[in-house]
Amino acid sequence: MRNKTIFAGRGNWKIEDVTALAGGNARAALPDDPKLREAVDKGVEFIRRGWKSGRQLYGINTGYGASVERVVPENLIEELPRQLVRYHGCGLGRIFDEKTTLAILSARLISLSKGYSGVRWELLENLAALINNRILPLIPEEGSVGASGDLTPLSYIAAALMGERDVLYRGERLPAAAALKKCGLKPLKLMPKEGLAVMNGTSVMTALACLAYEKAAYLQRLSSRITAMCVIALKGNTSHYDEELFERKPHPGQMQVAAWIRRDLAMRGYWGAGARLQDSYSLRCAPHIIGVLADALPWMRAQIETELNSSNDNPLIDGVKGKVMHGGHFYGGHIAFAMDCLKTAVANLADLHDRQLELLVDKRTNHGLPSNLSGAVEERAAINHGFKALQIGTSAWAAEALKLTMPASVFSRSTECHNQDKVSMGTIAARDCLRVLELTEQAAVGALLGALQGIELRARRKELKEAMVAPELAALIRAVRVKVPFVEEDRALEDDLRWLLAQVNARAWKLYER
Asked: Cβ distance 233 to 455 under 8 Å?
């Protein structure tokens, strides 16, 4: 299961590293790096010497945020981190699932292990241990405005390190202290700056962005294949995807999508000259629609991975140089903007698949297929309605996805006594994006099921033989048909759709791998 080790530290982590840890396919470890260890140790010692000497250090011997003018008496300084963690335990909403929680833990480990956050090596080791032992803080989804970072949700990680609040361990909800004990770990007494360091960053929104990116990267391929299937089912015009045509408008991602579709349409002896001169936009313009996402993903990867590999708490501590740097790296603006953009590009795919399924079910546009793709024959056709309800459902999922494209990043709030007077809303943007992806995957499998029905209807009419279908596409059709049979008599399709969604989420189909 955990077939590789991913080392934290000052290397360049990729989105795939986070998703590997989140999926249980890797374990986290700290590197054998003397220079990093020295930087970590010197940062901790620099903080200790500073507050012991009476030097004013934000969040160490001062209050937090707008309470910065408070002077914390020396005898209370070591209590301050625990107070910070405890009063932020006010999240609400659903609890992040296990995969997402592991991604959040991983993203926080990456940031803190850069050596500029003033935390002990022991804390980094314990954070890695939470990941490897799957001791999962129960983190509510709601309560962050994205600056000062993800304070409230990240407080649940800090609390777990302290042995406080509840966690999920091996499927059981336990007090954190009990789960730590089962794994041979001891609760940490957080030192000055450590509570602030764990909580004051962008790791929740960044983890969600990593998961969203992974889903979107797969979805662009799935949408391309579904489009090809719709073209086959609808006897569409394959010349709309010609290589020379796309050389005249050479957006790289758009060209790639056209190439994927063209690869699936490498057929002989199907409809030949019977194709229409020009198909509807949801077929003809599919490379242009999916291509927007394909061309945006490389830029989004750069934004997400830069944030992932950043030290994003405040203040940053350079113990080697003896320097404190006050700033606003907890501000999640880049993630917020990337997620607002991503959810818009993705929602357009939900709309695309809704339109494609509509073409398939409507006798006026499906080029001779039965109304609503019904597989019933003779007198049974009178009482069967095929995919009528599925098209309504797909339209509902698409509509909800489109509704959620309102950008979250422009809805900044003034919080915390106007100290946090301009915030990123990055975590809300990322949560919205994941919901849009979920809805779009639902619309995609709706269209996939309809396209499969249309292709088989062509085959049953002797208009199409399996030998005519490109091998990779034929393999997918066979894999799906093992579980999802042709719809001859009306039946509830929910189980079929849920199975298809499970395959999508497991990345079970290898799409355009070569």
From this structure: yes
